[in-house]
Write a structure and sequence with these properties.
The chain is of the alpha/beta class. It folds into two domains: about 80 residues, Uncharacterised protein family UPF0261, NN domain (Rossmann fold, 3-Layer(aba) Sandwich); about 220 residues, Rossmann fold (3-Layer(aba) Sandwich). The protein contains nine helices and twelve strands. The strands form three sheets. Strands 5-4-6-7-11-12 form a six-stranded parallel β-sheet, with helices on both faces. The chain has a three-stranded parallel β-sheet with strand order 1-2-3, sandwiched between helices. β4, α3 and β5 form a beta-alpha-beta unit.
Length: about 325
Amino acid sequence: LHDKSEIDGVIALGGSMGTDLALDVALALPLGVPKFVVSTIAYSHLLPPERIATDLMMILWAGGLYGLNSACKAVLSQACGAVVGAAQAVVKPDAAKPRIGMSSLGKSCLHYMVRLKPELEKRGYEVIVFHTTGMGGRALEAIAAQKGFVAVMDFSLQELANQLTGSVVNSGTDRLENAGRQGIPQIVAPGAVDMVDFPTWQTVPSRFIERPYHAHNRLLASVTSDASTRKEIARAIGEKLAAATGPTAFILPAGGIQQWDQEGEPLHDPEALSAFVEEMRASVPANAELHEIAGHINDAAFCAKALEIFDRWVADGIVPPGRRQAA
């Protein structure tokens, strides 16, 4: 129906059964189609990240069993207004320029996008940067699964580390898989994989009780993983890269992978970083180019290497050329 331009949005109403079905419908539709779910389990931990569409909206179906009442009428009226308003007001994604998906973690932890975004825009691409605190990586994966990018620069893989260590702040089991599965050219780096996030309002997981701790705010806190865990993460990255069907390059910054792991910073742990770098060198599969730089991921040299690989792929026809504005 969407392909025939016969629908402008979707609204679904249900309990766990109806929600289970509605999530598949929402996932089948591209970004920009309004999707609203009225559910008895809205935003519940029962919903795994990989089941949630990029732009899904939800509201709790409060008081919705056994007849209408003032509580459920308030909810239903909001839901109706939301989906109608969204369908009327939505500015759908513009496909005029080829799109590049890029992951990052804020701007203070990782800030390569400050240099890379304008450079890629000069080349005629639209750059979409995703903040990798769970749903950001989910959005990147969902769009990649629908072949929504001509290339992916996946430089912040902290959600993968979170998922492997049991943190709820993750993007699902298919993080770092969909671009490779769809054959989309991808340049990958291990940004912030030494950190593990968890809710600030929960106690620190026992395995991390002795590790350096940072409370970012009242919602999100982080600890650093030890050398053994970082080796496990390196091997998992390698396994996911090995499954890629398209061109893949991996940039390994031996000098550090997030702002606070540098000398003089609170999360500096050179022994654990060295263990990760050594394991990562051994884990990059044969189907991926390995590019090691001596510097830090936030150094200009990292951006230069990423652009060098990207420009070569454009010249070789691996990535389609950008669409520059007419003079």
